[in-house]
Structures are given as C-alpha cells and as structure tokens.
Amino acid sequence: MAKTTCVVSCGSSEVLAARISERLKADLIRTEIRVFADGESKIRLRQKITGDRAIIVQSLYPPVDTNLFRALSLISKSRECMTDVTAVIPYMGYARQDMEFLPGEIVTMAVLGKLFKGAGASNVVVVDMHSTRGLELLGANAINVTAVPALARYFADMHIDNPLVVSPDSGGAARAELFASNLGADTIMLDKKRDRNTGQVQITTTESDVARGRNIILVDDMISTGGSIVKAAQFLKSQDCGEMFVACTHALLVDGAQGKIKAAGVSEVVGTNTVPGQNGVVDVSEDIVRKLAAA
Fold first, then answer.
1. pLDDT tens per residue, range 198-230
2. Which residue from 136, 199, 202, 205 is spatially nearest to 176, judged by alpha carbons?
3. Quick check: helix, strand or coil at residue 159?
4. Are 173 and 167 in contact (CB under 8 A)?
5. Spatial separation of the C-alpha atoms in residues 195 and 77, rounded to whole Å
6. Is residue 114 among the annotated active site residues?
7. Domains, the chain, ranges and CATH?
8. Contact at 8 Å (CB) between 64 and 222?
9. How far apart are alpha carbons 155 and 47 in whole angstroms?
10. What is the DSSP letter of 46?
11. Environment class of residue 118 by beta-carbon count within 10 Å: exposed (0-12), middle (13-18) or buried (19+)?
12. Rounded CA separation 202/213 (Å)
C-alpha cells in the first residue's frame, strides 16, 4: 500500500507549502498562530495530522528564532502521531555559523542539528545550504536541494546579451560555475576578504578587463544586508562592465539592502520563494518535491 503524506504549513512558507502539497497530491494542514504580549507563540493545527508521513515546511528568515521555535514545535507535534517526519527548511537560518571563526564563538549549526533531531525530525531538507560543513552538522539525514538550475532557467528566459556570471567570492565559485554551465555563459570569481572583527569587505580580481563591456550576473546563495554584493557591484562597475543583475536563492534583503544594491548599479535582484516577497519570483517546489520523492 502506498504511503500517504500530509504537508504542514506554519506561516513563514505558506505559499511554498501549498505548492509542495499540490505536487505531492497531499493534504495541506494549516496552522493558527497567536502571539502573546510577551512574544510567546501559541500554535494550533486547524486539522488533525493523519497519514504515514508528515512534511513540515517552515523557512527560518527573520524573525529567525521565532520561526525556528515554531518549526520545532510542529515537528514535535507531528512526531506524536507518526514516526516519519520530514522538516523542509527552505532557508536555514544560522547557516553561516558553521565553525568557530573567533575563539569562544558557538557553532550554532551544531546546536540546530541536535534540536531538529531532538524534536523528532527523521530528516531535514534545505535549499542551497551555505556550506557542506553546515549540512554535515545537521546530521546524516540532511538533504540539500539546489535552486541554481531553476535560477539559470529564469535568466535564460531574460535573453541577456553577452552575459558574464560572477561569484563574489571563492566560496561561491562552484555555484557560479553550475549557473554558468546551465546558462551556457562564461564565469569568473572575485577575491573577497572579510575582516572577522569589523566585518569590512574588500574585493579584487586577478582577471583584469574581463568584465569590460559584459553584462554581469552576480550569483550568490543568500543576500542579507547586501554588503558583499554592493562591494562586488561597485568593483565591477569600476571595470566598465555593462548592465548588472543579481541571482540568489535566499533574498532576505534586510536593513534597506535592496536600495543599497540598486544604488550600486544593479538593475534587478532575482531570488526564489524560499523567502517570500517581491524578489522571490523563482519557484523551488518542484526541486524540493523531486528530492522528497527520492528520500
């Protein structure tokens, strides 16, 4: 007998959860959230969790801690009903805290790995995890989905003339290469140095004049305040490049990042619906469902 699945949505990823449930032909269970004056969340399921497998869909964008607590609560509640509980965390908050960069820092991703396991998640599915190290810290049953091919297809439909795909740092080089391969374009990597104490970023490249006259697509996994993208865009503009675009999986764009990026000369920022909003135009539900089917 085929297993039956339900998808549980909890506020931060309602549209994405609905699309996942449609593709899986699964029941969608929505939740009601009440927030008390002291900030506590009270969560109530609108329907009973039924079936053989529960899939919790909840992104951890701001407020990160609130969305994390709600995800853990739903995982725990689902575990009361069944043994197969999958946590789909399209955007994994704390993903950059995957090692002790300075003495005394807590490796928060290691803590999250324990929390998801303790709450009862059989496995955790994420989209474009910041690093393989972070994925390992989530545990053996963590699964990464890449949105890069979907982003590349979106840009292919834009028909950008003479594009050059650029990674703002060495850590994203493989991502930019995959994007460029799907788009059929050239790619380069910038050299980014960040001061761990001040957060200041410096951008250089060893490939002089390669950006001159080229239309640029800057590719990154996530954009929060936009500092690195702004620095990269300013550098590329100084190299007399053409029009600039940004492709990222998680367009958080906090603290006025959108305006700062546009002021640096970028025409458009394209993200996915791991983070809902005006920039989250590329749907990743099909990519997630494909991984869920194989899990």
1. 666 666 665 657 899 999 999 999 999 999 999
2. 205
3. coil
4. yes
5. 43
6. no
7. 5-147+283-294 (3.40.50.2020), 148-273 (3.40.50.2020)
8. no
9. 40
10. S
11. exposed
12. 23
Distance CA 114, CA 136 (A): 12
The CA-CA-CA angle for residues 285, 270, 180, to 5°, reads 85
Cis upstream peptide for 62 (omega within 30°): no
How far, in Å, CA of 185 to CA of 247, rounded?
14
Handedness of CA 173, 114, 197, 259 (dihedral sign): positive
**Distance of alpha carbon 162 from alpha carbon 87, whole angstroms:** 41
Q: Which of 48, 192, 237, 260 is catalytic?
A: 192
Q: Where are the beta strands (DSSP E) in the chain?
A: 5-9, 27-29, 31-35, 41-45, 53-57, 84-89, 123-127, 142-145, 163-167, 186-189, 191-194, 201-204, 215-223, 244-251, 266-272, 280-282
Under a CB-based contact definition with an 8 Å cutoff, are residues 114 and 120 in contact? no
Both tokens of 283, joined, read: 């749907």
Q: Which helix (H) or strand (E) holds 81?
A: helix 64-81
pTM above threshold 0.70: yes
Tokens representing 35? 């927030």
pLDDT tens digits, one per residue of 114-145: 999 999 999 999 999 999 999 999 988 999 99
How far is 187 from 166, CA to CA, in rounded Å?
6
Q: Which two tokens stand for residue 178?
A: 């995959």
